[in-house]
Amino acid sequence: MNNYFDLINKRESCRNYIDKPVEKEKLIACIEACRIAPSACNGQPWKFIVVNNKELSPKVAKCLQNLVMNKFTDKCPAFIIILEEKSDIKARIGGTIKNQDYSSIDIGIATAHLCLAATELGLSTCIMGWFNEKELKTLLSIPKSKRIRLVVSIGYSADKKLRNKIRKSIDEISLFID
Ligand SMILES: Cc1cc2nc3c(=O)[nH]c(=O)nc-3n(C[C@H](O)[C@H](O)[C@H](O)COP(=O)(O)O)c2cc1C
């Protein structure tokens, strides 16, 4: 079992997958990690469509690509499409009163759970916010009224070495009031 800080350092966006199928049990474990994620008023405003299919995955990949964007997905065996579902009434009222978009926050947290669980299981992911929502809905028979919020590619990485993380410093992003 990884130490938490090892795990978060090991997670990086993978844009280079090998041709190896992803075990269904591992995908179920990733969804379990999403299922137990926290959410405003425990509203759980999400649904996860798991595409792990030799014929369908390349078609999903095409919906994620535009110009140079997300070309790497051609080689990815599986995708998790994250839909926003109607939130709990309390979370919706609270969000309106407080002018907060709790569902987006909830989905972001669940997505982080997903990527970290995948990393723990030896898989690699890339979160994608760039996709053709309309085409993806048609391909997967998702009703027009639903929103697709993110797509996560998931598979085994071809890269053996981790990249250095380029990030702002602690000083830039925090204020400690002692
Ligand atoms: C909401 C969101 C949307 C993103 N969309 C894309 C995308 O469409 N294509 C892509 O290659 N990476 C995408 N990324 C990955 C980021 O570029 C990446 O997380 C960031 O550069 C940090 O690198 P790392 O994930 O390797 O640590 C997205 C990440 C997030 C959180």
TrEMBL record:
Q: Does the keyword Membrane apply?
A: no
Q: Coiled-coil region(s) at which residues?
A: none
Which residues belong to the signal peptide in this entry?
Answer: none
What's one GO MF term for it?
Answer: oxidoreductase activity
Q: What SUPFAM superfamilies does the annotation carry?
A: FMN-dependent nitroreductase-like (SSF55469)
Q: Which UniProt keywords apply?
A: Oxidoreductase
Task: Tell me the ranges covered by the Nitroreductase domain, including all copies.
Answer: 8-62, 68-156
Family to which this protein belongs:
Belongs to the nitroreductase family.
Q: What is this protein called?
A: Nitroreductase
* Organism of this sequence: Clostridium carboxidivorans P7
